[in-house]
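Quick one: structure tokens for this chain, please?
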Amino acid sequence: MTMKRVLLKGEFFAEWDGTLDEAAALAGVPVGDLAFHPDDVLAEVQELRRQAYRTESDPLRLEAEFDAIAAGTEPDLAAWVAAVQAIKERY
């Protein structure tokens, strides 16, 4: 897990690689007073998306393109588009 900046009531508090619940318990503060820095949350989501694209949607696109080239037709990218949409909804 990657270290993320933890904010306590909007101010930098610590760097942490666990959950906010764990940080709150360790610090003795209500979990509602803590948040991860928005930039760190965004970076994590972007990395999860990249990984999902590589393992879930990219193989569908590559197969569709190969099949189309082999058949001399245009690729049917419907499955790839659906997979990308599902990934974007998830992250």
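The first helix runs from residue 20 to 27.
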